[in-house]
């Protein structure tokens, strides 16, 4: 059963310039109830890896550097 | 046979599954009652920000506070709102502890609104009594619970999804098997007593937006607990009494009667007219809501545009900063301002939830399920309309009783064969190299639920829906996960699949209509008290068939007179 990949516009955006994941921060990744934020292997910064968001906002509220912005998912906006 | 090395086994006295609201309270209470007991809290996400109250809460929806109401008043109100089908003793046990729980939380630092004299500032939203206590600064609940967990040295294991409960030869629950959501590690937690606090089943239906995670409930609550309880042999109840809520269209957050109602907001039709007497969520209220939505006066709106600037600012402060803070962004994106526009509302997808409705795993007034050693609290259990405070109270009740149960018990024996078979079943999607992605499987089940199982319920439609959902059993051996995260979703999807069947089987069994929209059965439009004044219990029967039976409603502890019984049947505003 062959599979294909589809792209999807994700609601949560991390500002790479502000994110201090390279200094060991994992706060947003720790708190997300749906476990959809992971480290981007290429940039070393946090990013939304899976488009499965409840737009609940702990990631944004708890980020120490205000790097995270939660938008409303496109299908709802 | 021994347990293979790749399966880590941990031993505790009391295991709590789900660290949202009820779970932390259960774990802390067990430790308070017996500080020598080892207590583990297992959470799929992270207890710091998990569950329905991840960002906080706007208020208590069901506070029984002396001077405003008595436990008897409250039991009556919920009996009526629930069309008489409930374990009154269970609601009474909640009501009697409601006030002491508020005092405890107040002492712990949870902020409740108080009036000038320092008394709790109670508001009337229910049809008959006064039970709402606002928490405009309710953001810190999770922080406070977390501090308590640390203080009592509860062992917290985050990012494990409990998947199956274990039992010993005598049929007593003896722990669970769980999956690491980031590394696909399979673990066994052996426990002398287990308390399930895994929340509602909020991912059975598909939100109208089509976004799988745009549900009313925190989507981490997908019905794992309901499925686990079913497979271990516990009874579930009232599953035909769906949870359906009146929400903001597309955003799927509460609209919200409890916050705006006391400040003068209300539910209106397209003409701006009130059409229901009382915005408290009940099946009867939802029926009127649905009729208005479908009729010529729809859609339905939350009306605030008549309120003073000051009041609107107060509402915005609560609704845009507290329990669902992205709501302000949603309105901004649409250009909706409460001052000038009514806000469009809609009805939610279906789910199982005792917190708002009455559907879940059967428990009694001690929090015991029908399987020894297994307790349940909060949205996944069966005490109706229990909301946040009910989750806390039953968390406390279960914590007390489970730790006593564990005290009397030896370390249970594990069933190695079952554990190995389960490990293989749980990990199977990760071993494949292609197949059906969990998201597609999940979408399909949930779409069938919407097409065939949503009310108005029709026998023929439900038969087709059930047959089509059951046919998806054949797809399970093809589920394919590329990484541990997708494996989590694959296992969730199988629980959603179980819950979807439960919704159909229970709905087809109760051949009458009851609870307004929740069980509006077109083939049997009348309420039939002669044959159906009973609970419907669902369980795994002979040959593993999903089976239902009737269970008598136990004698009431608080009697109702005839006029009271009908109070929730007359919710529509009378013309003239
Ligand atoms: C948007 C919203 C607004 C609400 N507003 C109010 C309000 O204003 N007032 C009020 O009184 N009530 C309100 N409620 C209801 C109230 O929040 C809930 O009734 C209550 O919090 C339920 O507590 P719980 O412990 O049962 O579930 P939750 O707090 O949701 O916790 C369930 C936990 O179980 C975890 N879990 C699930 N499956 C597994 C598994 N397999 N393994 C391990 N862990 C698992 C989840 O991650 C979650 O942390 C609201 C609910 C929602 C969704
Ligand atoms: S919390 Fe903020 S700083 Fe830390 S990893 Fe996430 S985005 Fe980066
Ligand atoms: S908004 Fe919630 S679900 Fe979405 S990424 Fe942030 S914490 Fe996770």
TrEMBL record, chain A:
Name the Gene Ontology molecular function terms of this record.
4 iron, 4 sulfur cluster binding; metal ion binding
Q: Where is the 4Fe-4S ferredoxin-type domain?
A: 10-42, 44-73
What are its GO cellular component terms?
cytoplasm
Which Pfam family is one of those matched by this entry? Answer: Fer4_7
Q: Which UniProt keywords apply?
A: 4Fe-4S, Iron, Iron-sulfur, Metal-binding
- Per its UniProt record, what Gene3D superfamilies does this chain match? 3.30.70.20
Q: Which InterPro entries does the entry link to?
A: 4Fe4S_Fe-S-bd, 4Fe4S_Fe_S_CS, PSI_iron-sulfur_center
PANTHER family, alphabetized: BSR3197 PROTEIN (PTHR24960:SF71), PHOTOSYSTEM I IRON-SULFUR CENTER-RELATED (PTHR24960)
What protein does this entry describe?
NAD-dependent dihydropyrimidine dehydrogenase PreA subunit
Q: Which organism is it from?
A: Microbulbifer rhizosphaerae
Automatic annotation (TrEMBL), chain B:
Q: Which residues form the signal peptide?
A: none
* Limits of the FAD-dependent oxidoreductase 2 FAD-binding domain: 13-386
Which InterPro entries does this chain map to? FAD-dep_OxRdtase_2_FAD-bd, FAD/NAD-bd_sf, Fum_R/Succ_DH_flav-like_C_sf, Fum_Rdtase/Succ_DH_flav-like_C, SdhA/FrdA/AprA
List cellular component terms (GO).
Answer: plasma membrane
The yes or no answer to whether the keyword Acyltransferase is present is no
Q: Name one GO molecular function term.
A: electron transfer activity
Pfam families in alphabetical order: FAD_binding_2, Succ_DH_flav_C
Keywords for this entry? Flavoprotein, Oxidoreductase
All residue ranges annotated as the Fumarate reductase/succinate dehydrogenase flavoprotein-like C-terminal domain in the record: 446-558
Would you say which domain of life the source belongs to?
A: Bacteria
Q: Name one GO biological process term.
A: anaerobic respiration
Keyword Ribosomal protein attached: no
Q: PANTHER family this protein is in? A: BLR3196 PROTEIN, SUCCINATE DEHYDROGENASE 2 FLAVOPROTEIN SUBUNIT
Q: Which protein is depicted? A: Succinate dehydrogenase/fumarate reductase flavoprotein subunit
Q: Which species is this UniProt entry from? A: Microbulbifer rhizosphaerae
């Amino acid at each position: 059963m062959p599979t294909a990949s589809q792209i999807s516009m994700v609601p949560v955006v991390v500002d790479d310039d502000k994110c201090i994941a390279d200094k060991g921060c994992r706060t947003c990744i720790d708190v997300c109830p749906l476990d959809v934020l992971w480290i981007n292997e290429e940039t070393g910064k946090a990013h939304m890896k899976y488009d499965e968001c409840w737009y609940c906002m702990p990631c944004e509220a708890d980020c120490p550097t205000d790097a995270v912005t939660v938008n409303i998912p496109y299908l709802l906006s | 046979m021994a347990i293979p090395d790749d399966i880590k086994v941990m031993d505790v006295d009391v295991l709590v599954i789900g660290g949202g609201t009820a779970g932390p309270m259960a774990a802390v209470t067990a430790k308070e009652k017996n500080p020598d007991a080892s207590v583990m809290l297992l959470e799929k996400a992270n207890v710091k920000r998990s569950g329905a109250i991840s960002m906080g809460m706007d208020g208590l929806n069901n506070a029984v506070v002396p001077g405003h109401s008595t436990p008897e008043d409250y039991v009556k109100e919920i009996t009526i709102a629930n069309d008489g089908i409930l374990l009154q003793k269970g609601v009474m046990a909640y009501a009697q502890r409601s006030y002491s729980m508020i005092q405890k939380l107040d002492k712990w630092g949870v902020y409740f609104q108080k009036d000038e004299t320092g008394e709790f500032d109670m508001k009337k939203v229910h049809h008959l009594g006064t039970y709402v206590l606002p928490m405009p600064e309710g953001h810190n609940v999770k922080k406070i619970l977390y501090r308590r967990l640390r203080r009592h040295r509860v062992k917290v294991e985050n990012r494990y999804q409990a998947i199956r409960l274990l039992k010993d030869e005598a049929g007593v629950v003896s722990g669970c098997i769980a999956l690491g959501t980031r590394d696909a590690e399979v673990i066994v937690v052996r426990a002398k007593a287990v308390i399930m606090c895994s929340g509602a089943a909020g991912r059975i239906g598909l939100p109208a937006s089509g976004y799988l995670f745009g549900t009313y409930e925190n989507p981490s609550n997908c019905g794992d607990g309901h499925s686990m309880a079913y497979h271990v042999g516990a009874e579930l109840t009232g599953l035909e009494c769906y949870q359906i809520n009146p929400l903001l269209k597309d955003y799927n957050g509460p609209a919200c009667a409890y916050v705006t109602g006391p400040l003068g907001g209300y539910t209106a039709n397209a003409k701006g007219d009130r059409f229901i007497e009382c915005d408290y969520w009940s099946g009867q209220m939802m029926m009127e809501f649905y009729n208005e939505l479908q009729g010529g006066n729809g859609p339905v709106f939350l009306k605030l545009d008549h309120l003073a600037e000051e009041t609107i600012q107060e509402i915005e402060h609560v609704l845009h900063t507290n329990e669902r803070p992205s709501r302000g962004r949603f309105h901004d994106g649409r250009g909706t301002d409460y001052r000038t526009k009514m806000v469009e509302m809609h009805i939610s997808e279906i789910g199982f939830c005792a917190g708002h409705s009455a559907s879940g795993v059967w428990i009694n007034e001690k929090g015991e399920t029908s399987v020894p050693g297994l307790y349940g609290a909060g949205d996944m259990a069966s005490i109706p309309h229990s909301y946040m405070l009910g989750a806390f109270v039953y968390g406390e009740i279960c914590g007390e009783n489970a730790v006593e149960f564990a005290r009397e018990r030896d370390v249970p024996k594990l069933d190695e064969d079952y554990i190995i078979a389960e490990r293989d079943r749980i990990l199977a999607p990760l071993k494949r190299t292609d197949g059906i992605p969990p998201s597609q499987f999940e979408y399909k089940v949930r779409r069938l639920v919407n097409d065939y199982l949503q009310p108005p319920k029709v026998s023929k439609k439900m038969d087709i829906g059930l047959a089509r959902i059951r046919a998806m059993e054949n797809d399970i051996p093809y589920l394919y996960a590329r990484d541990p995260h997708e494996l989590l979703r694959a296992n969730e999807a199988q629980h959603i699949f179980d819950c979807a069947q439960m919704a159909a089987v229970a709905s087809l069994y109760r051949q009458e209509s009851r609870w307004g929209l929740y069980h509006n059965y077109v083939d049997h439009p009348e309420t039939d008290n002669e044959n159906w004044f009973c609970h419907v219990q669902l369980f795994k029967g002979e040959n593993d068939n999903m089976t239902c039976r009737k269970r008598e409603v136990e004698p009431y502890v608080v009697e109702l007179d005839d006029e009271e019984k009908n109070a929730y049947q007359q919710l529509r505003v009378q013309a003239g």
